[in-house]
Write a structure and sequence with these properties.
Radius of gyration: 20 Å
Helix content: 10-25%
Number of strands: 9
Number of helices: 2
Order of helices and strands: HEEHEEEEEEE
Structural class: alpha+beta
Shape: extended
Length: 156
Amino acid sequence: MVKKLYVALFILLTHSLHAQEGGSFKKFDNMNQKVSANKEAKIFTITGSVNNISLSGVKVAKPNAHSLKQYGLISRKDKYAIKVLNEKGNQIMFVGLGDPFTVHIDHIGHENKTVFQADIPQNFDIAIPVTTKAAYFVLLSQDEFGFKEIKKIKVN
């Protein structure tokens, strides 16, 4: 009897979680325009580091396919991310970066040591549709507890 109660509770909980997840994805899919390599887009060149972010330039051009594939939806493996906000503070885009600011240097006989790491700045090209107005870029770091804002910059 207790086993049946646990199974019923598990099914109910699983169904409830699935319904909540589906609702959040529908909001994300409401963007009526997507960036593609065939259409012109606003390409923001951003320079980032472990604790800083700055806007290096903006241009209108066709994005290259490599940059569109390189930075995608966020995953658990992404240590850093960039969030793009509009003027009202609503999220336009959320891009996972991975761990681009850490370079790992291997030394024969010391491959397992974390001493051979260095933090470096990195440039990113973030493409958004031409008609979309980006007002802020936010650099975030992710740990086991979620996202922390590192720095927020305003687009002029």
